[in-house]
Amino acid sequence: MSKLLVKANKGHGRVAHVTPKSAGWTYVGFDLHRLKPGESASGETKDREVCLVFVTGKGKASTGGKDLGLLGERMSPFEGKPWSVYLPEGSDWSVTADTDLELAVCSAPGLGGGLPVRVIAPDDLGQETRGKGTNTRYVTNILPEGKPADSLLVVEVITPGGHTSSYPPHKHDQDNLPAESYLEETYYHRLNPPQGFAFQRVYTDADADGGRALDEAMAIEDGDVVLVPKGYHPCAACHGYDLYYLNVMAGPKRTWKFHNAPEHEWLMKA
């Protein structure tokens, strides 16, 4: 199995755990908690900032002794928009499930920005349609570049069955602004219906002899996490199975400037 593919535990509690150390990088952390009603998850942000994303279900959230109320409303990631909570460094948090709950904990280094805790309601989230034809996908911006955070960028995408996404292939692995930014990235994948599968390839440019420093093609199943330390990272959803993914990105500068694979850039103009 590819070292870039993290299989979530099928039980409940914390079922996926990605740290900078386990991923072999510097910035992005990602945990996933699956909770039954009455079960809780909690943590401390320490020197990191966190975005809690209520992927599915409802739960009562609190931080620093303050009750944030009952958050979440959708029961499937393929409908509606999520509730989220932004937590700066030095915070503690707790969520107790009111229904079956899937809670993503997205983290990156805090930079002392002094930002306040904030609840991010579905009505606060912008949505956009990207691509055309069988490259159409639907994007919900949870913590985009234009909203306050120190390092984190968080977005979710739905790709209909038979469509491609993160395509034409692009990368963001060079700290070379304004042309390209360096951003590590995780993909948390869901399938509808859940017995389906999709594909994701993570690869770098070919050298003079045609070899690639990284070239991994993975079959993605419901609940899988894919690590993108560098390179291009397109996805393909199979006919009959819609693909959802939650992206977490972070790097030395909080901006998303990507570089298209030159051999496929003609697709942007087609």
UniProtKB/TrEMBL annotation:
Record InterPro entries: Deoxy-glucuronate_isom_IolB (IPR024203), KduI/IolB_isomerase (IPR021120), RmlC-like_jellyroll (IPR014710), RmlC_Cupin_sf (IPR011051)
Organism domain of life: Bacteria
SUPFAM superfamilies linked: RmlC-like cupins
UniProt entry keywords in alphabetical sequence: Isomerase
GO BP annotation list: inositol catabolic process
Isomerase in keyword set: yes
Record-level Gene Ontology MF annotations: glucuronate isomerase activity
Family annotation (NCBIfam families): myo_inos_iolB
UniProt name for this protein: 5-deoxy-glucuronate isomerase
Biological source species: Mesorhizobium amorphae CCNWGS0123
Lineage: Bacteria, Pseudomonadati, Pseudomonadota, Alphaproteobacteria, Hyphomicrobiales
